[in-house]
């Protein structure tokens, strides 16, 4: 029994020691078990900094630079301009995936889907999406091996058959990339608008690649080239 009281007393002392005196003033730096980001490597706004000759902590951007992923439009938004390589800033189809109250199909007029655009989509898909959806888009990425279920399979009818009841138009896929869905977080803050549409184009490519007729000359040539490349490795 005495050991119980000893342990009980020790627990009380520890609780008081770690939590009971947080409001007291100290002349020395307190011990922080969890610093809760109290100390950060940053300069607060309008604060001084002796590192710079003028002593001003807030610095102006380097002349001639713009934030990553942003381009300065030639015209203002009021004049009909849009950011060809920026982040979402409007409610039009290019920025939202919406056409009125519905998800749009096809690609915005600002997008030109060609070989270079598909290669961009493949690259960004492999970087941001393949870890869950797999490089083939079959939902069998690395995370599926660790118990994460219900990962979208882009070969399913909902992504390749417009007549399927759960068919996802391009605008809906774009919105999911932008805002996220279920366990998937949104990538709107990290993937520029143009690259989101490139990923949509690659998702469509992955789905159509499973239904393309082998008798089609272009499909046959692509398959032959892929087999030749694989055998050469």
Q: In DSSP terms, counting alpha (H) and pi (I) runs of 4 or more, how many helices?
A: 8
Range of helix content: 25-40%
CATH class of the domain at 87-232: Mainly Alpha
Provide the CATH architecture of the domain at 87-232. Answer: Orthogonal Bundle
Q: Beta fraction of the residues?
A: under 5%
State mean pLDDT (0 to 100 scale): 83
Question: Order of helices and strands, N to C?
Answer: HHEEHHHHEEHH
Uncertain runs with pLDDT below 50, 5 residues or more?
A: none
CATH topology of the domain at 87-232: Cytochrome Bc1 Complex, Chain D, domain 2
Radius of gyration: 27 Å
Structural class: mainly alpha
Taking the alpha carbons of the first and last residues, their distance comes to 73 Å
Outline: extended
Biggest sheet: strand arrangement = 1-2
């Amino acid at each position: 029994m005495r050991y119980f009281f000893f342990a009980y007393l020790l627990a009380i002392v520890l609780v008081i020691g770690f939590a009971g005196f947080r409001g007291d003033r100290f002349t020395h730096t307190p011990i922080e078990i969890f610093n809760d980001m109290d100390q950060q490597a940053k300069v607060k706004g309008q604060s001084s900094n002796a590192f710079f000759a003028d002593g001003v902590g807030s610095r102006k951007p380097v002349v001639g630079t713009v934030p990553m992923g942003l381009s300065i439009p030639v015209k203002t938004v009021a004049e009909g301009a849009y950011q060809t390589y920026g982040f979402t800033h409007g409610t039009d189809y290019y920025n939202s995936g919406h056409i009125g109250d519905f998800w749009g199909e096809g690609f915005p007029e600002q997008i030109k889907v060609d070989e270079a655009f598909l290669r961009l989509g493949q690259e960004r898909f492999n970087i941001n999406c393949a870890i869950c959806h797999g490089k083939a888009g079959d939902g069998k990425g690395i995370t599926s091996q660790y118990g994460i279920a219900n990962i979208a399979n882009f070969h399913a009818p909902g992504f390749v058959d417009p007549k399927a009841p759960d068919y996802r138009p391009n605008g809906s896929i774009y919105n999911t990339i932008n805002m996220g869905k279920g366990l998937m977080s949104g990538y709107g803050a990290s993937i520029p608008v143009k690259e989101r549409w490139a990923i949509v184009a690659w998702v469509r490519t992955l789905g159509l690649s499973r239904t393309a007729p082998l008798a089609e000359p272009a499909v046959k040539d692509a398959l032959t080239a892929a087999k030749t490349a694989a055998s050469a490795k």
